[in-house]
């Protein structure tokens, strides 16, 4: 992929952060995530006492309250791992393309993965959960290449706004296709609502176990690409001068991000804006060094999705608001702010 230069002046997000500041933010982030995980287990449509929470954490499910808490535990774990994956993928995508608007949802990657799974289930009888993941990763990869190719057309190449517009249009088209495939099929319409919205309500230990190896593989690839992304941020020519194999570095990092996006979507459906909001927030906290930025993006992404799930459960009791809706309400205004802040004028 050809990098995109936004030609914007340096700001507070680009200032190098001292190590002690980064360590402090690391401790704060871990503490916040721990608190949110406890809140996710304790809060929901049914009020439960802390004694029932501790009993359920110990394996008891003798009462309705304890059974409710027991169901929240895998839901919390799924929100943590998927939020971490999406936050990390967003940081990598922004680093690979040098595009401040890059996000798996905005660029249509998640919806492309969703469409391929729905199509495989409806027309080819796909039933294997592991098959969902492989198909979703293939769809995510094809969608990413397609959006980048469309966004590169015309004068100026792949500018941030052109990529965002191409991704948004592609995502909308894929969402319409998902509806067109699912709605006439009464046998799958109810169970496949998550492929249109995205949520963690159907979590189970089995589903987490199936997707975890793919997420770990994607996480390792992305984290190992951190040093290369630092070189790419200097520009292709300088990176090559420093001995970096630019094409290989960019392709490897992009592959890790696609694996994370595809595997996440296979389990939770398309959840947008986590990969946009999180890396920008983390740059304010720890600077632009990807060796710090990527792990922080994973932690903050886990915190954001867990918090969004808790909010979705308590604001509409006894019903749930899917986490994909909550993240959209958070991310859409942030997206508009980033576009205005970057002063991108070329359509």
UniProtKB/TrEMBL annotation:
Topological category with respect to the lipid bilayer: Multi-pass membrane protein
Gene source species: Streptosporangium amethystogenes subsp. fukuiense
Localization in the cell: Cell membrane
Domain of life: Bacteria
UniProt cross-references to CDD domains, sorted A to Z: TM_ABC_iron-siderophores_like
TM stretches of this protein: 23-43, 73-93, 105-126, 132-151, 163-182, 212-233, 253-280, 292-315, 321-339
Keywords assigned by UniProt, alphabetized: Cell membrane, Membrane, Transmembrane, Transmembrane helix, Transport
Protein name: FecCD family ABC transporter permease
UniProt-listed InterPro entries: ABC_BtuC-like (IPR037294), ABC_transptr_permease_BtuC (IPR000522)
SUPFAM superfamilies attached to this UniProt entry: ABC transporter involved in vitamin B12 uptake, BtuC
Family: Belongs to the binding-protein-dependent transport system permease family. FecCD subfamily.
């Amino acid at each position: 992929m050809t990098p995109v230069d936004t030609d914007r002046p340096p700001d507070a997000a680009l200032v190098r952060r001292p190590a002690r500041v980064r360590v402090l933010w690391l401790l704060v982030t871990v503490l916040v995530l721990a608190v949110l995980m406890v809140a996710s287990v304790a809060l929901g449509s049914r009020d439960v006492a802390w004694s029932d929470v501790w009993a359920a954490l110990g394996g008891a499910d003798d009462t309705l309250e304890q059974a409710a808490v027991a169901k929240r535990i895998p839901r919390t774990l799924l929100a943590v791992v998927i939020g971490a994956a999406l936050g990390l993928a967003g940081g990598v995508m922004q680093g690979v393309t040098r595009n401040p608007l890059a996000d798996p949802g905005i660029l249509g990657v998640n919806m492309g993965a969703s469409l391929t799974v729905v199509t495989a289930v409806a027309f080819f009888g796909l039933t294997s959960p592991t098959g969902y993941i492989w198909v979703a990763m293939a769809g995510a990869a094809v969608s990413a290449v397609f959006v980048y190719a469309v966004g590169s057309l015309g004068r100026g190449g792949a500018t941030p706004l052109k990529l965002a517009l191409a991704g948004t249009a592609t995502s909308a088209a894929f969402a319409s296709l998902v509806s067109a495939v699912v709605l006439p099929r009464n046998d799958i319409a109810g169970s496949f609502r998550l492929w249109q919205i995205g949520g963690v309500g159907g979590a189970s230990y089995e589903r987490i176990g199936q997707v975890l190896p793919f997420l770990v593989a994607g996480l390792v690839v992305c984290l190992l690409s951190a040093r290369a992304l630092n070189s790419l941020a200097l520009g292709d020519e300088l990176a090559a001068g420093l001995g970096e194999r630019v094409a290989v570095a960019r392709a490897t990092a992009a592959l890790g991000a696609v694996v994370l996006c595809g595997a996440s979507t296979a389990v939770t459906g398309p959840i947008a804006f986590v990969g946009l909001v999180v890396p920008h927030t983390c740059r304010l906290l720890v600077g632009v060094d990807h060796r710090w930025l990527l792990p922080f993006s994973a932690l903050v992404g886990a915190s954001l999705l867990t918090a969004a799930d808790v909010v979705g459960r308590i604001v509409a009791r006894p019903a749930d608001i899917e986490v994909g809706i909550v993240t959209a309400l958070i991310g859409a205004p942030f997206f508009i702010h980033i576009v205005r802040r970057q002063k991108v004028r070329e359509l």
